[in-house]
Each structure stands twice: as structure tokens, then as C-alpha cells.
Amino acid sequence: MSDTQKTEGSARAPTEARGEWPLWEVFVRSKAGLDHKHCGSLHASDAAMAIQMARDVYTRRQEGTSIWVVRSEQIVASDPAEKDAYFDPMADKVYRHPTFYALPKSVDHM
Amino acid sequence: MPAASIDVARDPHVQYLLRVGDTCLIQAQRLAEWCGHAPVLEEDIALTNIALDLVGQARAVLSRAGRLEGERGGVPHDEDELAFLRDERDFLNLTLTELPRGDFAVTVLRNAALATFFKLLWQRLESSSDPDVAGIAAKAVKEARYHQRHAADWVLRLGGGTDESRQRLQAAVDHLWPYTPELFDADDVDDAAASSGLGPRWAELEAGWRAEIEPLLDEAGVKRPPPRAFRSTGKRGVHSEHMGYILAEMQTLQRSYPGGVW
């Protein structure tokens, strides 16, 4: 718990030092049943303001029926420098796709 | 050769609609001044969205008012003629809307006062005897609800913010509040609209407006100035000194290049 607070505190300090509101990532669902998709980011002082501003910035042309926002600093991302090690080994593993396997004739129409 | 001004039908029903449409139009014009100047980019877009909503409402209501002129035996006008070729005395917007945009506190407080008023007015106009007006109201009431939420949110944030933000909000209340009694001043235009079922007397909206706006100001920690005898009269066509400047800026293109289009 105290670790989390510490992390938040140190991440917030640089933006506030410049007098800027924290950054939020915005996710919009275009219609019921579809996923929320990341569509951009914005600055807002708190969650309520972030939702309101997301409505005005990202749904003004009928893009949305639902909005999620999350503090950008709360997103944990993979390291771009590790991209080769992380993702390239998957390129030659065709047997990980179900279509690699030949099915018996009786069920092959799947 | 500058375009000549049009004469507007002196019909109370037309005047009732002009009060609605002109208040939307001038409020939109004032809000549009923030485009490129709002405190943050996100708010710039929000204020411009609201201004565009109000332009849309003004277009719909002015179009209906212009057709009504014809139906009432006068010369019909379209929305552009009404917006760009009327003289100051023929504009019937509330004086509150034409006051300079001021700082951000003045802007959001005026938005809160007007959006609350419009929400209540559109709700009543949804059952107007004029089906066009009822249709416009059904769409506009949703927009006004959002405008009210947006503005009320900022009033609370400024009231509960820093000493400076609270002082600015208090200064905005002191400055704007003397112009709010005009919203509910009764006259024969209201009577005519009420008796035909076109729309409510605006005085009927006062209790509902106070019930929403006064707790908001209380929660924001600002005080309303005591009532004064002063009454502004924009909705009767007698405006403040600021109105001429707005019209000059808004109308210059159509006056100089009559009928010019994009």
C-alpha cells in the first residue's frame, strides 16, 4: 500500500511542477457490445473532469456510447527496447495456430 | 453598397421566438470568442462545442420565427436575414448574454445561469402548440442539460478552488446577478405566447430556476448581491452599450457582401 502511494507521488511530482494537470488515457466504446478502444489522451485535474473532457474532445462526432479514462501513469507497458526478444520468436511458430493441424475429414468443414 | 436592414414583424409570437433564438445566438457569439483562448485545449473544445450547440438552436428557432412572420401576414425571412440584417433594436436577446465574456469565472457562471434557464424553458416548449418548436425543444433540452452540468461543475470547482478562483467567481456573481431579473420580467409577449400555447410565461420558470441555481451558488461558497431596482431590457430591444459591437463583428461580412456564402 505504502509502496503504491510512493510510486504515485513520485510520478505526479514532475507534471505538477510544470503547473500541468495529469495526463489521462481515453477509451471509447463506439456501440454496445464492442470493446472500448484507446483513442487518445488529455489533461484533466481529476477523473470526473477527465470523463467530461473526453466527452467533448473524443465523442463530438458521435463516436461513442461509453467512455473509460485511466491515469496514464497507471498503465504498465512492455519495454520497446525488448521488442525483438519479446515478439520475434513467435514469427516461426505456425503450429501455435489451430489452422496448422490437419483435421479428420468428418470435421474438416470447421 | 451595404445590405439594407430588414423590418421584422411586430407580432408577439414572432417576438417570443426571437427572444429565444437571439439569446442562443448572442450567447453563442460570446462563447465563440473563447475559441483559441480558453485556459486549456480540452476546455477550448468544450466551450466551442457548446457555442455550436447554441448556434444550431438559434438557427432552428430563427428559421421558425422567420416563417411565422409570413404566416402572420408579414414578410417571411430566413435565418441568415434575421441574424445578419437586423438592427440592434430588433434583436430581443437577454442583456445578460451580450455582456463581455469577461474572465473564465464570468463565462462559466453565465453559462450556468443560462443553461439552467434554457433547460427549464426547453422542457416546457416540448409541449408547445407549435409542432416545429416542440421538435426543436426535444433536441435542445438534451444539449442544455449537458451545458448545465458542464457549467455547474466549473462553478463548484472555482468556488472550491483557490482564494483567487473563489474571489473571481464572487466578482462574477456581483457583476452578472443584477441582469438575471430580466429573465423573468413579465410582459404582453409572454401573455400572448402563454394564451396560444406557443410557450410558457418566462416568469413561470423563476421558481424552478432559483431552486437549482441558488443551492449551486451556496455550495460554491459565493453570495448573491441584494436585489436592486435596476432592470435590463434586452428582450425588449433596448440593449447595453456592448450590443452594437457584437453586431458589428457578427454582421460585417453579410452587410459588406450581401448574400455571400462559403
Short structural description:
Chain A has helices spanning 2-17, 47-58, 83-87, and strands spanning 23-29, 36-43, 66-71. By secondary structure, chain A is an alpha+beta fold.
Task: Tell me about this structure.
The complex is a heterodimer of chains A (110) and B (262). Chain A has 110 residues and is of the alpha+beta class. Chain A has one domain: Ubiquitin-like (UB roll), CATH 3.10.20.520. Chain A contains 3 helices and 3 strands. By secondary structure, chain B is mainly alpha-helical. Chain B has a single domain, classed as Ferritin (Up-down Bundle). In chain B, 63% of the residues lie in helices and 0% in strands. Chain B contains 10 helices and no strands. Chain B has helices at 12-32, 41-71, 79-84, 95-98, 104-125, 131-159, 163-176, 188-196, 206-220, 243-256. Chain B is globular, with a radius of gyration of 18 Å. Chain B starts with 11 loop residues before the first helix and ends in a 6-residue tail after the last helix. Chain A binds chain B through residues 21, 42-45, 48-49, 52-53, 56-57, 60, and chain B through 40-43, 45-46, 49, 149-150, 153, 157.
Topology, pairings included?
The complex is a heterodimer of chains A (110) and B (262).
Chain A: H1 2-17, E1 23-29, E2 36-43, H2 47-58, E3 66-71, H3 83-87
Antiparallel strand pairs in A: 1-2, 1-3
Chain B: H1 12-32, H2 41-71, H3 79-84, H4 95-98, H5 104-125, H6 131-159, H7 163-176, H8 188-196, H9 206-220, H10 243-256
Helix pairs in contact in B: 1-2, 1-8, 2-6, 5-6, 5-7, 5-9, 6-7, 6-9
| CATH class category of chain B | Mainly Alpha
- Measured on Cα atoms, how large is the radius of gyration of chain A? 21 Å
Coarse morphology of chain A: flat
The name CATH uses for the topology of chain B is Ferritin
> Average pLDDT value of chain A?
82
| Spatial gap, N to C terminus of chain B | 20 Å
| Content-based structural category of chain B | mainly alpha
Compute the number of strand runs of chain B. 0
> Largest interface, by Cβ-Cβ below 8 angstroms: which chains and how many residues each?
A-B, 12 and 11 residues
| CATH architecture classification of chain A | Roll
Query: Roughly what fraction of the amino acids of chain B lie in strands?
Result: under 5%
Strand content of chain A: 15-25%
Structural category of chain A is alpha+beta
Please give the share of residues in helix of chain A. Answer: 25-40%
First-to-last CA distance of chain A: 50 Å
- The number of distinct helices of chain A, counting runs of at least 4 residues, comes to 3
* Tally of separate domains of chain A: 1
Low-confidence stretches of chain A: 1-15
Taking the sheet with the most strands of chain B, its summary is:
none
CATH C-level of chain A:
Alpha Beta
Assembly type of the chains comes to heterodimer
